[in-house]
Design brief:
12 helices
Length: 335
């Protein structure tokens, strides 16, 4: 608009006429004309208003980078502060401890937003987990298992067991503020267990049982599982004591051509996509009907697994989790 107004003046139009045409004051037109005569076209270009990014900030760019990295790399207790989780108040205390500057929580929040950080629910990791073992599993062991299975025309499955209790309340419901809704359930306590195995093809196999999970149950599951395949099964599981028991080893010795077990690193459940099946099961149990006995709970559990067997796209989706996506690297659906 400024350029057009100056062009009109250059063509000989009157100041008042130009001001009326562009609906501005005569003073504004005079100002544009003076700027154009002094600096030409560039003098009329708009410039951003307000402070420049980073201007007049209490912390320097280097100090901000140091605090951001400290939050990402450490927990509060690592740095002499209370707790395991960062809050705006604790980050403010860290800044005060490092640089002697006090911030309000909203002030800390502005820095956090500028640093690209958000308030999130953290993942849990056992302190006993060996990060090097996890790295080897992802980068070396898993590719080797995949190559062997492909060479043998075998089937790769990930398996895990889960327990479901009658007193478990899943999901949320609406209610009046200040008045917690009540869920009616039986006062009897009972549970059922399940073992499941999934593949990247969307296949799911399961077994629901009421006894304690032990070596005999594991052998029974292996026998049922291998009965579904006419080729060798490579089964990836955790290091549960039943999986490594003598009874299971003896059973495997007699079925070497049918199944082989591969163990995940200790304390690393996040590497097993079947853990997401367990979480899905516990979320998906009916909210409107509570099992009154063990038989009903077992039936609810079987219904869940039968439903997922008819939904291979959901089963394949379990492998899309951020910690199990490594399974899909290179030829994701080759097994």
């Amino acid at each position: 608009m400024r350029l057009l107004a100056v062009s009109a003046l250059v063509e000989g139009r009157d100041r008042e006429e130009v001001a009326a045409l562009f609906k501005v004051s005569v003073r504004a037109v005079d100002n544009w004309w003076a700027r154009w005569r002094a600096g030409g076209r560039d003098a009329l270009l708009s410039r951003p208003r307000g402070r420049r990014v980073g201007e007049h900030q209490v912390l320097s760019e280097a100090e901000q980078a140091a605090v951001r990295q400290a939050v990402l790399d450490h927990t509060p207790c690592d740095l002499g502060l209370p707790g395991q989780l960062w809050t705006r108040a604790l980050i403010g205390r860290l800044i005060s401890k490092l640089y002697g500057v006090r911030f309000t929580e909203p002030g800390v929040g502005k820095y956090l937003k500028r640093w690209g950080l958000s308030f999130q629910r953290p993942d849990k990791r056992a302190v006993e987990q060996d990060p090097e073992a996890v790295r080897i599993r992802r980068e070396e062991t898993w590719p080797a298992i995949r190559a062997r299975a492909k060479a043998e025309n075998g089937e790769i499955l990930f398996a895990d067991q889960v327990g479901i209790r009658s007193d478990q309340v899943t999901g949320r419901t609406w209610g009046a503020k200040g008045r917690t809704p009540v869920v009616r359930r039986t006062g009897n306590r009972f549970s059922v267990n399940a073992m499941s195995a999934i593949s990247t093809k969307g296949r799911m196999h399961f077994m629901v049982f009421t006894e304690t999970f032990d070596a005999q149950v594991m052998c029974r599951f292996l026998a049922r599982l291998t009965g579904h395949f006419d080729r060798k099964v490579h089964l990836i599981i955790d290091r549960h004591s039943a999986h490594r028991s003598k009874a299971v080893r003896d059973w495997l010795a007699g079925h070497k051509d049918q199944v082989e077990l591969h163990f995940l690193p200790s304390y690393s459940p996040e590497l097993n996509p079947d853990e997401l099946v367990n979480a899905d099961l516990k979320r998906s149990l009916p909210h409107t009907y509570r099992a009154r006995n063990q038989a009903e709970l077992a039936a609810e559990t079987r219904r869940f697994f039968h439903r997922r067997q008819r939904q291979p796209h959901i089963v394949r989706g379990y492998f899309g989790g951020p910690h199990v996506r490594y399974v899909l690297d290179e030829n994701p659906l080759s097994f």
